[in-house]
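Pipeline run #58 for the internal structure catalog. This entry was flagged by the ingest filter as a single-chain record with no existing model, so it goes straight to prediction. Upstream metadata was stripped on purpose; only the residue string is passed forward. Reviewer on rotation: M.T. Logging verbosity set to normal.
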Amino acid sequence: MVRFILMLHRHFQEGIIEAGCDEAGRGCLAGPVVAAAVILSPDFDIRLLRDSKVLSAEKRFRLREHIEKNATAWAVSSTCNEMIDTINILQASFVSMHKAIDQLEVQPDMLLIDGNRFKPYKTIPHRCLIKGDANYASIAAASILAKTYRDELMFDYHERYPNYGWDRNKGYPTTDHRAAIEIFGITPLHRLSFNLRARQLKLF
């Protein structure tokens, strides 16, 4: 059986500088939300780029090196759990994206945003693209950077709080993570505005 893998779109609109933006960690119970913005050069090799969710950890980190070395510009930023609790996770995702765009060494003409909502950034036009990380190269690249940088943070946090399995679940609401909260309580990295405790951890 031959599998055909469709290549991602290089552009949404040709002839302008586009920055793809994506975030990681929005649905987690602990840790920051991390966003990335990436501008790819016209000759960037996009053949191996994919949405970070369909890549192995090893491939993600290899592609991160490729992106950081060959992209025209890239940046990563985060918003901590305390700020998430203060302004809500959606707004915190926008803040992280804005901070990443702020750091780009090249100003884009358009922003390509993964998802269906975004808070406008200055006067730069944007397009919200559902499943953009699965269809557009610059958003896929941003998804890879956001995911790998956040995973590294969660590995570090796991060393400080080893009871919650963050090296495996990365702070997402898995059964083992919720069970650890029931046993050990919460940490300073947990998001207090989220439903941290499962109503029922197992069937009786």
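catalog note: The longest strand covers residues 18-24.
catalog note: The chain is about 35% helix and 15% strand.
status: ready for reviewer M.T.
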